[in-house]
Structure formats: structure tokens, C-alpha cells
Amino acid sequence: MARNAKLESWVDEVAKMCKPDAVQWCDGTQEEYDTLAQLMYETGTFIRLNEKLRPNSFLCRSDPADVARVEDRTYISWATKEQAGPTNNWIDPNEIRTTMTGLYEGSMQGRTMYVIPYSMGPIGSPIGRIGFILTDSPYVVCNMHIMSRVGTKVLEVLGDSDDFVRGVHSLGAPLTDPKQPDVPWPCNAENKYIVHFPETREIWSFGSGYGGNALLGKKCHALRIASVQARDEGWMAEHMLILKITSPEGEVKYMTGAFPSACGKTNLAMLTPTIPGWKVECIGDDIAWMKFGEDGRLYAINPEHGFFGVAPGTSEDSNHHAMGTLRKNSIFTNCALTKDGDVWWEEMTDEAPAETVDWLRRHWEPSMDRPAANPNARFTTPAGQCPVIADEWEDPKGVPISAFLIGGRRAGVVPLVHQARSWNHGTFMASIMSSEKTAAAAGKVGELRFDPMAMLPFCGYHMGDYLSHWVEIGERADAAKLPEIFYVNWFRKSDAGKFMWPGFGENSRVLKWAFERCDGKADAVDTAIGQMPSPEMLDTDGLDVDAATLKELLTVDAAGWLESLPAIEAHYAQFGDKLPKALADELAGLRQRLEAAK
Ligand code: GTP
Ligand code: SPV
Ligand code: MN
């Protein structure tokens, strides 16, 4: 194979800095995966699950100080703070390079440095993007095997080009003394850094081995770096699931959905409709890259190759197809271990097992007032194993998108569904989206925060410029060919604190309404906030929700919206003159309509 001098000199440079005992170029083969899994089994990182119950699968328990993305240690390091904008942590690139070079110095001693060539998107497809991770974590290698396309073929396609994302990842836990025993989950909890250099397409990660902090192809590359490339090149990189929906008449549409972390993307992407005759299939569950096709429509691909999904709450009832996906060849992180050598998590089964070993390796019984699995416990599982993966999920030209769904966790105010009147109105709705924080990121769960397009933690540049990019996408396109935008909320709660909407498979009723709205076939009521179905416009056959609740779910809480306007104004004020005028106009229009509706 032709050698790529730029790649090799970078690998040499990083090896000189981190001083691993060995450097291993990954080939992406099953044999490589098996060897590394066996190595982690021997060092106590991996527990091999019962081969009959969960073939070729492993459980891994992390350090309790390393269980989620760390947003306060995640940085976007442009030359100036202004370029990162008010919603990102910024750090001066020269300063952080000095700091991290110090941390990386000798940080891989006693370990192997793996060179992972990966492709986000089908290898060699015009929309695929290549990256490399240099990591001292075999856990990262095995997870990347599942989550992306790893292997020698990537090197062949790259040739001598230097168009690749450079990721460096170190656990920051060198084994300096040959007699020093390793721990099951090495990390450096006190010194975590996840730093992005958008200008040079580099990612430097240190100290954490978990999820989006460490599997650099996912949020770091496919969202934070790719969002910058997308802006520069006129496409979109979004935190969105992609689903295919087929009507009883056999008509197909594709929809994406932007929901913040742990707000229902994996579930919606593969839901089992409760309404007869409708079918939902999965294209992707977390990230969508979208480009205009020759016909002027937006086409989406899933750059990933696996699911890194939230385990707690996943069950045969809530997500049958996820349960089918993770039956084999999967890695489970921070789940509980049952007596018969399988995994368990909260709500996986109606009845909890009589005893398990919890994610902290302690004896656990259902009567205990702590969960057996960490709330952000995850499964890593091949997308191709999903029983309802759509045939076209790896089509390099992508699938044409008819609708964007957006939404977060909102106990109050936001109705079950409302539709935007135009692209700019939908962009506005997405930009004022807010959600109660979940366990996917470290910090206080439940706090309400604005999360525009579910991209707050994942936008690689100034959020005001990102909003302008959405407006510009709309300006460039033929309005009739743009997706319709729907704001949904599965998470309304009653005064008693119970979910008012049953969610999961029942969400298909909202999908059906959206599907038919795209064709102008379903009715809607014009309201101050957008177009909404009245209860009789939604298919409620067989739905177990009482009339009063349904009415409340589909009523505009004008007082609640008016009350939220000052917070929206403050949210917008932080973007200063970067706030697109079209969105300021939308906000003024909303205020006017709400006041008129009072
Ligand atoms: P990330 O992988 O972090 O981006 O999360 P995600 O958006 O894919 O979220 P996921 O589908 O994994 O759902 C997270 C949690 O929300 C799980 O515990 C689900 O059981 C729960 N959930 C998903 N859909 C619904 C719903 O329609 N209603 C309710 N009440 N809960 C839901
Ligand atoms: C999310 O937090 O949105 C995830 C999980 O999808 S992680 O890969 O850890 O970012
Ligand atoms: Mn996500």
C-alpha cells in the first residue's frame, strides 16, 4: 500500500509525545476485535456474558468518576472566543496545546497506542469522511469497531490525501512501573479535557474513557467538527435520528428527529407503531448528515455503523427492536450483572431479578433504594443487527427527508405536537427548544435549559452563526422541497408528576399525522404557536388516554408561553448581532399572536 507520509509523521509525533510501549495499526478485522476483547477479559475490564443468553457480548463497568460526557471539560478551541460563541467553552489553542502536551507527555507508558482508521459514512462514498484516533484504550478500539467502519480499506481510500480528522485520545493513566497492576477502567478523572480544534480538524481528548468523550468519531467528529465543515460547504450535520415510515397504502417517507441526549431518539428511530398497517424502520438513531440532492431535496445519511444507546428504560415493551438488536455481539457499559451471567437494567423486565451485582460491583436487591444500572448505562451494538434496519440504511446517496421532528423533555407548556408554518418558523421553534437535563451528561438532572436543535453540546462554532446557517439553507432551497418541521413533546406531566402521554409505540399516532400533513391530507388548527391537530384530527382509535388529558395535551397554554418569552429573549440576547433577523421577527410574531390570543 502507498504510504501516507503526513499520516505517518503525525502518528510518530504523537507516539514520541505519549511514549507507548508499542504502536498497533488496527485492521478492523473480527480477529482483532476478538483478540482485544480477550485481552480486556484477562485484565478484568470485560466480563464475558453467558454465551447462550448473550453470545459474543461483554459487560464493562467504568470508574464511578467517568460515567458520562463532561460538558464543562469540553472545549471548542478556535483562535478567538468570538468564533466559539457564547454557548461553548472556549480555550486559547496555544494555551491548551501547551497544557495538554504536558499531560500527554509519557501518558501512554506501559500501554499500546492503537491507530484506528475509521470512516463515518460508507467507506469511499462521496459523503463519507475519514478520521484517525490514536488511543491507548482497547475499549475505544472495540467500540469504534461497532460504531464506525474501521479498517485497512480506509487507508486505501485515503491514499496520500491529508483530508482526515486527527483524533488523539489518552486515558491519562500510564503504567510507569512494570510491576504496577492495571485497573479495570483506567482514567484520569481529575484532568479530563475534550478539546476540538475546528481550524485544523483536530480532536484532543484526555482522561476519560467513556462514550462521547472517548469514541471520537461520534460527537467530536461527526457533530462538532462536521458541523463546521457543513457550514463551510453548505450542508447540515445534526444530532438527529433518521427513520423510514410506510403507510398502509405502501407510501414511504423519511423523517429525522432532533431530541437532546436521552430524550427518545433511539426509541423513535425503531418504534413499533400501535396503529394498524403502519411500519417504521430505522436508518440511524443519533446523527444525520444532510446534503441537497440534484432534485433540490435534502438527503440524509447516518454516518455511524452502530448504536451507543441508553440502556435503562429499554425493554421488550418500550423498544422491542432495540432488544432484538442487542441480543449478541454487543458491549454493555455500567449495566448490572445477573446471577446467570446476563445484563440487567431498570425497567428491562417487569420484575427485577431477585439479586444482581450492580454497576458498582456491589450486591444489589430490588428493595434497595438505588438503581442497579447507572442511569447513563449504555449498549454498543451493530446497527446492521436491528430487526427493522431499512434496506437503504447504507445507501451512499442518502434518503430524501420529508419532515424534521424536534423536541425535548418538557413537563409543562409545550403541547404534544405543533407544526411550523414555514422553514424560518420551524428554525425558530427549534432554536427556542428547551429540555430538562438528563444523565447523558454530568451535572444536575432535571434542570431546564435551552438546547437549540438539540445541538447545544455539539455545535462546533458560534450558535448564532449556526442559526444563520439554518436560515441560509432555507434561502437556498426551493421552499416546497424543504422538510416540514414539527415540534413534539412526549414528556408532558400531570400535576401528580405522571407522564400524560403513553409515548413509545403510541408516538406513531403523531408520526401518522405528520406524514399526512406533509401531503396536505390531514387537518390542523391554526394557533398562536403553530398548526395543531385537535383531538379528533389525531388517530386515537384504541388509545388509552382520557378525553380531558388529550385535550390538555393539544391545547395552547398561552399564559405559559407568554411567561416563557422573557427567558427566550434572554436566550436570544446572548447571540447579539449574530442572531438572524428572520428569527427575531419570528419571536416578535409569536409575542403578537400570543397577546392577541389572551
Ligand atoms: P442519546 O443516545 O443520549 O442521544 O439518547 P436518545 O435521544 O437516543 O434517547 P433514548 O431513545 O435512548 O431514550 C432515553 C430514555 O427516554 C429511555 O429511558 C427511554 O425509555 C425514554 N423514552 C424514550 N421515548 C420515550 C417516550 O416516548 N416517552 C417516555 N415517557 N419516555 C421515553
Ligand atoms: C448523547 O449524549 O447524545 C449520546 C451519548 O448519544 S454520547 O456518545 O456519550 O455522547
Ligand atoms: Mn445522542
Describe, in short, the structure shown.
This protein has 598 residues and is α+β, with helices and mostly antiparallel strands. The chain folds into three domains: 5-45 and 66-234, Phosphoenolpyruvate Carboxykinase, domain 1 (3-Layer(aba) Sandwich), CATH 3.40.449; 238-305 and 392-597, Phosphoenolpyruvate Carboxykinase, domain 3; 306-385, Beta Complex (Phosphoenolpyruvate Carboxykinase, domain 2), CATH 2.170.8.
Topology:
Layout: H1 5-18, E1 22-25, H2 30-42, E2 46-48, E3 58-60, E4 74-76, H3 81-84, H4 93-104, E5 112-120, E6 129-135, H5 138-147, E7 149-150, H6 152-158, E8 165-170, E9 193-197, E10 202-206, H7 211-214, H8 217-233, E11 236-238, E12 240-246, E13 252-258, H9 265-269, E14 279-284, E15 288-292, E16 298-301, E17 306-310, H10 320-325, E18 331-333, E19 336-338, E20 343-344, E21 356-357, E22 363-364, E23 378-382, E24 399-406, E25 417-419, H11 423-431, E26 434-436, E27 448-450, H12 463-476, E28 484-488, H13 508-518, E29 525-526, E30 531-532, H14 547-553, H15 558-573, H16 581-597
Manganese (II) ion is lined by residues 239, 261, 286.
